[in-house]
TrEMBL record:
It comes from Nocardioides astragali. Residues 1-24 form the signal peptide. This is EfeO-type cupredoxin-like domain-containing protein. PROSITE patterns: PROKAR_LIPOPROTEIN. The keyword Signal applies.
Amino acid sequence: MSGRGLARLVPLALVVAVSLTACGGGDDADPPASTQPATEGDSVALTVTREGGEFTPNGERVELGVDQTLVLTVTADEAGDLHVHSTPEQEIAYEEGTSEHEITIDRPGVVEVESHEPDVVVLQLEVR
């Protein structure tokens, strides 16, 4: 290939490379809408659903500020508890139906919220 032919291909190759980079799907995608909390003033609201022994969300990470209140609405087809592995640990007992609970974490880090019956991590609170 002559120098001129190569000189014409270089800009085309750059355009193709930039286009492919812009279209690439990365791991930075937004989490599903069900795990995106609603921020209201100084608190964050999130709904957890337990149906047929399964939870939604299921292990997703939610950002929360230090000392920011998480208002957790639990809708469940049977009673149970959630364990918040913070320091000190917190336990949320919920009844069948819909109930509302508040959680506040006073230290940065990742805090798991899990059920022991069934044994599943429901949320990971990324506290900053």
